[in-house]
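haha ok so turns out i had the wrong file open the whole time. this is the CORRECT one, sorry everyone. sequence first:
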Amino acid sequence: MASRTPLLFAAAVVLLSAGGCRKDETGPVTISAIGAPPRIVDPSRQPIDPPAAFLIESTAEGLVRFDAGGDIEPGLAQSWILSNDGLRYTFRLARLNWSDGSRVTAAQVVQRLKAAGGPASRNSLKPLLGAIAEIEAMTDEVLEISLKSPRLNFLQLLAQPEMALLRAGRGAGPFVAEPRADGSLLLAPPRRTDEEAESGDSPPMPLVLRGEPAALAVARFQQGAAELVVGGSLGDLPIARAGETRGNAPAFDPVAGLLGLSFAAREGPLLRPEARQALAMAIDRAAIVAAFRVPGLQARETLLPAGVEGIDSPAAPAWTALPLPARRAAAVRALALPAGGGEIKVRVSLPEGPGYRLLFAYLRRDWAAIGVDARRVGPAEPADLRLIDEVAPVALASWYLRHFTCAAAAICDGEADQALEAARNAPDLETRRGLLQAADARLAAAAPFIAIAAPVRWSLVSPRLTGFRANPFARHPGGELIRATP
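then structure:
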């Protein structure tokens, strides 16, 4: 792994060197998103990667959106009111048009939101949309969302690109996408009305967006042919490091979420919770975190991070109080390997990427110390454990816990499911918190997941992009990349 990553980056530099040049700093902002070529897809039908997410955020909005710092600001809705009991959001739409000139209506927004949470939806946020009791259009410009119980940070959910409003594959701005001959997309503000032109507000700078592999994106940035690289993860972090020069260190978003391994096998030795706990306690998380050199990244041993929804002390297994040598000794006893030798074999599914290969090397070393032989397999192959590397889209404990309901995971706990369902309908936040803590405790005992740390998300940012800000959701709106000057 150590030799392959620089070679990937060097090959990409050679590929770009003939045409790589520092671009005009007054022209469109050039952006490379790590992934497939960007295209508009319906998030309720298929997952979206970083290029698709950036494109959807730029050309289609939800009721609200994230600003550069990850705070909520108006999107399709120009204003909203939350009822005193925290159960009803009333949104008033801004006067926005589709690309064909027709008005965006409340009924269209309601239809889109219902589809995202409907029976046929494959939207990644669908498990959280069960908190919604009703969505109604009150007038052409006003709609109301009623919740089953109060929900902190609900607007963060609505700001995600998965909740953007699309009509016939198009949104309502703030940019319009036009394909270019080289496969990239030009994202430009729509033609301004006379009223907008007279307002004195400057339109956002046009963008050029392309999706490409990490090595090519980093090389393009190094050659001055891109001013922003987004969508970086732990898997491709070594590629960014290989291209790092003075003043070119990755910018890391302080995201929360899940980075660890879920148990996928429905048979074999890992069906015993003691065996699953043994794998978890044998890992040297401090060494893994140190290897990646991400500022602020800390090892984690619990499913929930501390502080989410006011849960300051997430449920933790008893072994977390032991030093690593004692943990490994306890793990050997828990595995109950036959006297005189023997080992347990496990298949670990991880995506491609030098960072994931490095992570697996540490896991394989740590598990070998307790008599477990780990073999790496691809994402589509049968596996005993699978990597989860996901940013939390909203600061809700239920997002973490619902990954491990009996409908979603091979290893689960029926009583935890019942507590989660009761929490969804809890009459107040204190009752909800108690039920979430009960579900967390049940899952800590069942051990469906091995937590390692928070996810890692990085970008490369040109000095020209004075409006770029790291934020907890790794969302970087194109219209705010260059800070407006007086």
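The mean pLDDT is 91.
again sry for the mixup
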